[in-house]
Amino acid sequence: MTNSVRSLEGKIAVVAGGTRGAGRGIAVALGAAGATVYVTGRSVRGQASDMNRKETIEDTVDIIHTNGGVGIPVRVDHTVESEVRELFERIRQEQQGRLDILVNDVWGGDPLCEWTKPFWEHSLSNGWLMQERAVHSHIITSYYAAPLMIANRTGLIIEITDGVDYSYRGQLYYNLAKTSVIHLAKGMAEDLRTHGVTAVALTPGFLRSEAMLDHFGVSEANWQDAAKIDPHFIASETPYYIGQAVVALASDPQVSEKTGGAFSTWGLSDEYGFKDADDSQPHWGRYFAEHFPS
């Protein structure tokens, strides 16, 4: 879908982990809104990552172009410092030192999480790798991105997470990863406050990603059928929704007032009025409160 309001014309953005899911939705939305989007990840054509998925960063860029945007695919393993450093040096040279938006969406933890096991029975190496992929990668990326923003005294860093608070998320290693990046956004906000740079955390609701559709054996055309397997899927949202949330934040001239906060797609939809791809406004927060009362 082409964004008729190109509110981010001329902006330079990086979506770290833009191969699929929320990252792809965000990258496409930023491009449609006028930003030049560097789409990074490990999965490229002819060389899949250990996630063993078919989606690639080049595919994401093709969708950006189809929607009237400008996308640049760059293969980066965000746990490798030298590759991250090279990415931002390239952006510094190609964009005359400008970087306006960074979205840290690197995850890669789904196949590592053993949901039914307590932490002492869970694979320690997998638990540690989850932190490396989902937390350390974000720190490394922000470390090299922030100086570009500081130099221009403007910028927005968005940490993609799960949830808006520090309540337990069902598995220690998963919980540690997701709450850590909320802390990361809050800590960066404090350090960046006097430099004109904003940092926030953002969560989707029940995300209807490519992997989740495959898990249920459905497509976007018949996704409601998956509610026969998991009734809560009826309240799911597409990656387009979180893309619109990111565009809304990046387009808000008063976004600095939100620095250090943790936000949700449904809450921002209430505030800014954007909708999902099917013109609905999914509200996972309200659904969760109604179906999982504390």
List keywords for this structure.
294 residues, alpha/beta, Rossmann fold, 7-stranded parallel sheet, globular
- Helicity level, as a percent range? 40-55%
User: Largest sheet, if any?
Assistant: 7 strands, parallel
General shape: globular
Question: How many strands?
Answer: 7
Low-confidence stretches: none
Distance between the termini: 38 Å
- Percent of residues in β-strands: 5-15%
Radius of gyration of CA atoms, rounded to a whole number: 18 Å
CATH class: Alpha Beta
Q: Topology as H/E string?
A: EHEHEHEHEHEHHEHH
Placed side by side, the strands forming the largest sheet appear as 3-2-1-4-5-6-7
Please identify the structural class as seen in this structure. alpha/beta
Q: What's the helix count?
A: 9
Tally of separate domains? 1
CATH superfamily: NAD(P)-binding Rossmann-like Domain
CATH fold-level name:
Rossmann fold
Mean pLDDT: 95
Please give the CATH architecture: 3-Layer(aba) Sandwich
Pfam families: adh_short
Protein name: Short-chain dehydrogenase
InterPro entries: NAD(P)-bd_dom_sf, SDR_fam
